[in-house]
């Protein structure tokens, strides 16, 4: 199975080769993998910043515990979740759905009201948690797509969220930096590539009711 081979190949890259860049064509494929990710109700309540600019990367590194992946990687994908979820976000989804499916928007009224009631029953903290959960699904797809294209990646939560939100102007966009991925190509000197995968044995990971 190719997916398993890819998952065995990938590892959280600690040292990137700063001279190697991911091609524009591959960036488009990675964007497509993220775009195709499933999300709760299909709402896609997130945005992804793709940072290539070295000045911004330097700023981000200083609030990422100095992790060199942020500056040495070709691109940094910053996954951001919506902080609030409004009725307008749900209306925007149904407007798009009615256009794409060529269905009158009024046909979706019942379903739309149902989603609004569900979303509005949540506290702001719960909404934030919910949108951030969705973000991780798209994030996982990015990592898998990278491995298929033999692009290295480091998934990272080791950064100061408040500082990221400030540097990237996320607050005023109603966004919050959830998780990031530095992507590029491994340095030959990255020792992590030679270490064995540390994973729980199957019997500790699964409970099967047959
Ligand atoms: C959500 C998440 C956050 C992570 N944050 C960091 C990080 O800030 N820095 C880092 O070097 N690795 C980070 N990692 C990498 C993990 O330590 C790594 O995935 C795990 O040890 C398994 O190793 P492998 O990915 O090489 O198989 C993170 C991984 C995930 C999934």
UniProtKB/TrEMBL annotation:
Segments passing through the bilayer: none
Pfam families: Nitroreductase
Lineage: Bacteria, Pseudomonadati, Bacteroidota, Flavobacteriia, Flavobacteriales
Keyword NADP carried by entry: yes
Keywords from the named record: NADP, Oxidoreductase
Segments forming domain Nitroreductase: 8-185
Taxonomic superkingdom: Bacteria
Protein's name according to its UniProt entry: Nitroreductase
